[in-house]
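TA notes, week 10

Several of you asked for a full example with nothing omitted. So below is the full record: structure tokens for the whole chain, then the designed sequence directly under it. When grading your own attempts, check the secondary structure regions first.
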């Protein structure tokens, strides 16, 4: 299953990603950063699996992230964004 990887330390809280994939992303006002709604922290990276039909909107979120802290990868770890 594809996954989103979020390097939250680098997030500047611009608010773009929830506009592209609102079912996956929200802004946390107290952190001043985006969070993956069902992300799990692995090391310093938040990870959330995504179904195939939601890949495109999350790739859009990734390519529009101004600090490139969102990555979407397939089963093999190949970058889709
Ligand atoms: S688009 Fe990038 S910088 Fe902006 S809130 Fe989302 S993760 Fe953070």
């Amino acid at each position: 299953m594809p996954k989103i990887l979020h390097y939250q330390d680098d997030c500047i809280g611009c608010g773009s990603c929830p506009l592209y994939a609102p079912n996956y992303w929200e802004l946390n006002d107290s952190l001043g950063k985006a969070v993956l709604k069902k992300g799990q922290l692995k090391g310093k990276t938040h990870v959330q699996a995504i179904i195939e039909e939601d890949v495109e909107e999350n790739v859009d979120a990734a390519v529009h992230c101004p600090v490139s802290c969102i990555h979407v990868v397939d089963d093999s770890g190949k970058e889709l964004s």
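Helices lie at 17-20, 55-64. Use that as a sanity check on your answer.
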